[in-house]
Amino acid sequence: MAVLVMAGFFIFNRALLRELWFDEALTFLNFAMLPDIGAIYRNYVIPNNQILFTVLLKYWHELALLPLSPDAYLRILPLIFTGGAVAVLLSWRRYFSRRAVYLVTAALAVSLPFEIYSVALRAYMLSLFLMLLCITLAFRVNRRPTPLNTVGYFLAALAGVAALPSNIVVLGGIAWWFLPFASPGKCLKINWWYLAVSPLAAMALFYLPITAQVRGVLALKEGWGSGLDAAVAFYLAFVLSFLPLIAASLIKLRSNWQYLLKIAGIFLLPLFFFLMRTPAPFPRVFFPYWAIMILVLAEMLNGFMARQRRPWLYPALAASVILSALLMQTFRQPLSESIGGSRAGDDYFYPGYCRPDFLPRETVTLLIKKFGPALPTTYVSFMADFYPVIFYGLVEGIDVNTWRFDGPRSKVDRLQPGNLVVLGNYPDELGNFTKRFGVEPVLLMENGFHRIYRIP
Q: Does the global pTM surpass 0.90?
C-alpha cells in the first residue's frame, strides 16, 4: 500500500501535470500532426520520430476522450503503458516467487526514472512495456513454442523496434539470457534460434522500406560527448533505483561460471554501445533495457530469498526499498548535478523540465498579458526550449509564424527593432546572443528559467 501511495503521489503530483519539454513538443508538433500513418512512417528524419509511438499519439490526440488540458490529456497515453508495464511485471509470479516479483516491481514503481518516463511523450514507457511483454513471451516460447506464442513474440518484437530501433539491443539481451549455456546441445533447437533471429527479421521488415531515411538518421551527430559519462549515468540510475535488492542478491550469488557469464553479458551489453559510438547515445535511449536487467535481478533475488528462512527478511527489504526511494527523492538535485552537470545533461534524476522553474506555458501567458494575442515577432533560443513555447502558443491561439527559432537546416540571420527575445537563464546565453546579432536586448521580465527581452 505504501508503494502504491508513493508511486501515485510522485507520478500524479509531480509528473502528470508538468509542462512539455523540447523533445515532447517536437514529437507532437512535427510528427504526430502529420496527416496519416504513411506520412509519419516516411518522415523518419530524426530520432524524435519514434514511429509507432508517434502514430499512437496522433490518434490518441484526435480521439480527445477526456476533458483535460491538451498536455495533461496527451500524457494519459504513456501512463496507460506505465500501468501495462507494471501489470506484465506482476505476471512474472508464475516464473519467480511472489515476494521477489513484488520487491522488484515496487523498486521500479517508486524510482526516479520511472516517475520521469511514466508520462513522457516519448516511446520509452511504451518500449519498456513491450520489452517486458517480449520477456514474458520468451519464457513461453522457450518452454512451448506454440503458434500463438511464436507469433505473439514476433509481433511484440516488431512493435518494439517500430517504437524505438535501439530496442533491438534489448531483444539481443533476451536471446543471450535464454541461451542454454548449461546444455549447449539445446542451442540447436528452434526455440532458442527463434528468439535470436525473429527480432532481426522484424527489424528488417520495418526499416528496410525506409533505408535512405535510416542512413540519414545514423549520420546525425547527436548524443553525449563522453561515452563513459553516459554509461555511468545509465548504470548509476539502475543501481541506485534497485540498490537494496542488488545488495541482498549479491550476498550469496551462485558461483556457477555459466550463470555469472549470463549476468555479465546482460549488464555489459549496453556499455559496448556507449563506448563504440561518438557521440555516445543519450542514456535515456537505454531506459527500456531496464526490462532485461530487471529480469536478471528478479532471478538473482529469487535465488537469494529461496535460501533464506528469516521471517523478517521480506518486510526489511520492502522497507529498505521505500527508504532508498525517499532518499533519492530528497537528493535528486545533487545527484543530477553530479551526473549531468547541467539542466539538460541529466536523463534519470532531475532533468531541467522536471524542475519548478520550467514554465513555458506561464511564459506564453505573461507575453499575452503584456502584449495581447497579436504578439510582436519573437525569437526563442534553443536553450530556452522553443518547441514548448510554440506548443503553448498554439494552445492560446498565437499564430505559429510569430515565432523565430533556429532549426537544424535554417538559422535566424537577423532580428528587427521591437522584436521580442526569449533566452534561457544560462551564464553565456545573453553574451552569445549579443555577439551573434550585434545588439544588446533590453530585459523586460523574468519567468522561471526564461528571460524575456526586447530589441531596442
A: yes
